[in-house]
Amino acid sequence: MSKLRIGVLAASIDQLRNWELKLLNDILADDRLDFYAVLLTKPFTAPAAPLLGRLSYSLDKRVFARQPAYPAKQVLSRLRTRPLINLLDDNDLSNLNLDVVVRLAAEPLADELLKHIRFGEWTLSFTDTQSPTFDWTGFWEVKERGPLTITAVNVRRASETRSRTLATAAYNTKFSAALNGAFVEEKSVILMMRELRRLADTRELRVERPEQFKAKAEMPGTLDAIAYMFRLGGNVLGKILIQARSRLGLDARSWRVHMGRGTVENFSPGQTTELKLADGMWAADPFLFRWNNEDYIFFECFPNNRQNAWISVAKLTDNKVELLGTCLRTNYHLSYPFIFNDGGEIFMIPETHQTNRVEVWRCTEFPLRWELYATTLEGQSPADTIMFRTGGQWWLLTSLSDHYAYMDHCSELYAFAVDGPALRSVVPHKRNPVIIGSDVARNAGRVHMVEGRLLRPSQCNSNGTYGYGLNIQEITKIDSDDYVESAVRLVRPDFMSGIVGCHHIDILGDRFVIDLCKAK
Q1: Whether pLDDT at 304 is above 70
Q2: Looking at residue 107, what DSSP letter applies?
Q3: Where does the pLDDT of residue 252 fall: very low under 50, low under 70, confident under 90, or very high at 90 and above?
Q4: Element of type H or E holding 466
Q5: Can you tell me the distance from the alpha carbon of 58 to that of 316, in angstroms, rounded to the nearest whole number?
Q6: With contact defined as beta carbons under 8 Å apart, do 489 and 265 qualify?
């Protein structure tokens, strides 16, 4: 199949922002896409933003959303080898045979030009929430305490009377509007690229919703800017107080492990008992494991949130806990000890993103002695990795941070077909990332097979909180061509007084363990 032929509509190629440069660079680098032409349109014109809005945005950006400049020279040098078509002078696109036009400019394509674009004009939903001096992407969500900031890829075709939405993604709203906007813009590049690659493979538009998702396009006024400044001040003060308490040894929050009875579909997080795993230590990411008819719990253990954590293990007898000690400790941070057995051997994949790879450890003397067995995804930044087998195929699911300015492991889930724990064969799924959105992407425990159904726990990172809630998702399709899952359940941290988060669960028989973040 020929490459997908793409044109980019912009007002200028000399004043592109970081996220725009990253998008263009990613299109240029993808061997399924042919970046054929740059279409230039008239500059953006809009009513002047209020003075106070411009000043507050400028200060907010300088303090909370500073970014290193994207290496524009290498992108622009390649762009200038493509045809540069000024639509103010040339209104004929019929000879370009473009499949898609990606619009970065505020001015859309004229209808008589759009009829020559096979799959229409694509744009991100926040494209119009900007003026030359004031980019208010993400502003309203912070001002109005929105738990999530949603973005979308929209498409407009000449044969249709209205725009439609191809795909949406939700991101955890940040405390600062400038930071929230910059983060969402950078992350949205991944969403756009996934949909372009999907179209390149299938040559079919897969529409998520028939109507168009629109970000709130209203420019904030002076009163909005004043209200936002008070909101920002409160957000910053709250963060300062949490940090101050932590430095004084008065940690405002801590993670604990609780245990109860139930199944992955039917568990009551409020009916649990705290496990006293280690005096003075935080504990999180618990995994249950049965060996020789005895039950064990492996968990992340750390004295505070300022040191590298390690993996500890305890033995469970009824509801009593016997701490056995540290089973894995390195000079880098360890967490999320996903433990499983295969072929009579026991393996663990702890979270090791500081090493920029996935590490598989093999047990040499259960449960305290382990050796490094295999690695993969070298040079990348994976977090909270799991493996499972279905239909004779092993799958590895992990969260990678594909970023320029903002490292983040909560917003994308990547799938790989692998040959088992040895990881000699690792094949990326063609729809990677298979899940996008901080409210649902990151793993929160192992995948469970329940009466033929694959149930995946995932984190719900929202309301400005890492580890706010917990989802149970059903994987309804996973093969070499597609990955589909649907929501079964959402657990919010409202089932017990004094908690502000819950972000992990594991099940063994009729017993479950969950971690809770408690506010002191």
Answers
A1: no
A2: S
A3: low
A4: strand 465-478
A5: 55
A6: yes
Classify 145 in phi/psi space as left (phi over 0), alpha (psi -120 to 50) or beta.
Answer: left
Q: Can you give the pLDDT at residue 133?
A: 73
Amino acid 491 reads V
What is the per-residue pLDDT across 333-359, written as a single tens digit (0 to 9) for each?
999 999 999 999 999 999 999 999 999
> pLDDT confidence of 250, banded at 50, 70, 90?
low
Residue pair 446/286 in contact by the 8 Å Cβ criterion = no
Residue 324 has pLDDT above 80, yes or no: yes
CA-based torsion, 310, 315, 321, 323: positive or negative: negative
- What lies within 8 Å, CB to CB, of 35 at 6+ separation is 6, 8, 24, 27, 28, 79, 82
Distance CA 216, CA 22 (A): 24
The pLDDT confidence band at residue 484, using thresholds 50, 70 and 90, is very high
CA 249 – CA 241 distance, rounded (Å): 12
Burial class (CB in 10 A: 0-12, 13-18, 19+), 182: buried
Which two tokens mark 445? 């425990």
One-letter identity of residue 210: P
User: 254: Cβ–Cβ under 8 A, 6 or more apart, which residues?
Assistant: 282, 517, 518, 520
How far apart, in Å, are the Cα atoms of 35 and each of 21, 25, 80, 84, 114?
13, 10, 11, 12, 18
The DSSP 8-state label assigned to residue 355 in this structure reads G
Other CB atoms within a 10 A radius of the CB of residue 131 amount to 18
Residues in the chain: 520
* Contact of 42 with 11, CB cutoff 8 Å: yes
Note whether 399 and 383 are within 8 A (CB).
yes
Give tens-digit pLDDT for 389-421: 999 999 999 999 988 999 999 999 999 999 999
Predicted confidence (pLDDT) at residue 307 exceeds the cutoff of 80: no
Q: Report how far residue 139's alpha carbon sits from residue 145's, in angstroms, rounded to the nearest whole number.
A: 10
Of 95 and 362, the structure prediction assigns the larger pLDDT to: 362
What's the rounded Cα separation, in Å, for the pair 210 and 417?
Answer: 33
Q: Which helix (H) or strand (E) holds 455?
A: strand 453-462
Decide: 132 and 44 in contact? Cβ < 8 Å: yes
Contact 429, 414 (CB under 8 A): yes
Q: Token pair for residue 361?
A: 């450890």
Structural tokens at position 355 = 């090493």
Two tokens at 82? 């493509």
Taking every pair of C-alpha atoms in the chain, what is the biggest distance, in angstroms?
A: 79
Look up tokens 């499972």; give the residue. 388
